[in-house]
Amino acid sequence: MAGPDRVAPPAKGEVHVWIQALDTSDAVLDPLARTLSPDEHVRGRAFRFDKDRRLFVARRGWLRAVLARYAGVPPERVSFAYGPHGKPALADDLGPAGLSFNLSHSQGLAALALTGAAAVGVDVEALRPMSDADQIAERFFSPAERRALRAIPPSDRTAAFFSCWTRKEAYVKATGDGLSCPLDSFDVNVQPGQPARLERVGEDAAVAGRWSLCHLEPAPGYVGAVAVPGPAVSLLRRA
Fold first, then answer.
1. What is the DSSP letter of 7?
2. How far apart are CA 43 and CA 47, in angstroms?
3. 17, 18, 57, 52: which is closest to 37 by C-alpha?
4. pTM
5. Domain boundary, last residue among 64, 99, 116
6. Which of the residues 133, 161, 212, 215 has the least number of beta carbons within 10 Å of its own beta carbon?
């Protein structure tokens, strides 16, 4: 049974989504830093700018604090295994069997998605002007996505661009394939505010139907997406 500080794992067909504004004050960072592993401290020191180092400590410490509530151990006891493309997972001796998670962050906001399914991907982005949005779309979006983006009214195009980007990133992160999966090899819908859909994967029309995409609005001025294998799922915001 879950204790007062422990969180029960997601039920079947459910994704837990945690959202956190990252506080980089010394009062918050100092206790979080004490929970990090030696290799995380090394990674943190590799950042050139202090702001980036502090954000790294904040999000890794927060990640450990949340995962500790599922695993029933102190945050410093949380340990990770890594897939062939670097995607982290809880070590085999920790947490409920089959628990999968994925972390994303953008401009001081972090999002963590957890599920009992085989995989999950989450991506968040701050909505902001992008002078090179057209060049990025030309390089990474599929022809169908580029056509759909051009049809969006200019006033909505920034939201459409980031809706498309986060849906694609969430899917790639869920598959665990990383850069080995070309972003233009599959289609998502780009319309902001509409239910997210994976519309095509390669030449196999059946693959898209085996995945669920969920639109996410993590905070004002941000947009995101969650991807999981299987039929439609429900998102449960946690705090």
1. -
2. 7
3. 57
4. 0.93
5. 116
6. 133
Non-local (6+) Cβ contacts of 149 within 8 A are: 137, 141, 157, 160, 161, 164, 190
Out of 85, 116, 147, pick the residue that ends a domain. 116
**What's the domain count of the chain?**
2
3-state secondary structure 84-138: CCCCEEECCCCCCCCCEEEEEEECCEEEEEEECCCCCEEEEEECCCCCCHHHHHH
pLDDT tens profile 154-206? 999 999 999 999 999 999 999 987 767 889 999 999 988 789 999 999 988 78
Dihedral sign from CA coordinates of 50, 102, 38, 28: positive
The pLDDT assigned to 163 comes to 97
Check residue 25 and report its DSSP letter: S
